[in-house]
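User: I'm curious whether this sequence folds into something compact or stays loose and floppy. Could you predict its structure so I can see for myself?
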Amino acid sequence: MGTLQEQARALGDPTRHDVFRYVAAGGGAVDVAELTEHFGLNHNAIRQHLAKLVAAGLLREQTARSAGRGRPRLRYQVDPNADSRWGVAGPYERLSLLLAEAVRTGEPPVAVGRRAGAAAAASATDPGSGDRVDRFVDEMARQGFEPSARRAGEAVDVILRTCPFATTAAADPDTVCELHLGIAQGIAEVVGGVVVEELVAMDPHRAHCQLRCHTGDDGDAVRARVDLSRVGSA
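Assistant: Here's the prediction. I'll summarize afterward.
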């Protein structure tokens, strides 16, 4: 993640700032072709701006799932850890909204997280397409967890290499881990075909918490197989 000074320098260029704001306003991932058409610049110029925004930790680059022959497209979206001072919702702004909703509604954090995860997955640009586990991992990445998946038959372990709310998780692991589990559940429900069975929590500053999942039925099966007693116990 870039420092605030690096991010400020990256956004000091007016065109680069406009590119960042365009990506942020879209809410999803965009590719070079879309940006080239919108700004009327050549591909190389757009790629240079994108490279500086990625290096500063303002945008995140991902490879689109290949739909056939040809080189997969690169797509760009706002880095979930980008600071809120740049006009986007930073991680702790997102956390404050989730916690405020839990207080206002009286619902458990896992239910609030599930609703937030489902809404995030439903807003994806290509809902329902591609491998379900890959889609689940992609959506968890959009939430700032930097996940990686290990598969063994129908069993899937998803390692969360970053805790987006690490400081608060260290102070109140039960609440934050329930939110994280709920987010994973909600994403799994929308993606379908992935059952989130358990969250094994670790030290949030070291991250590498683990979601134990398997491929199979979705919907009510997700809720029935979640073991809430294990949340925040590690």
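Summary: The longest helix spans residues 173-191. The radius of gyration is 18 Å.
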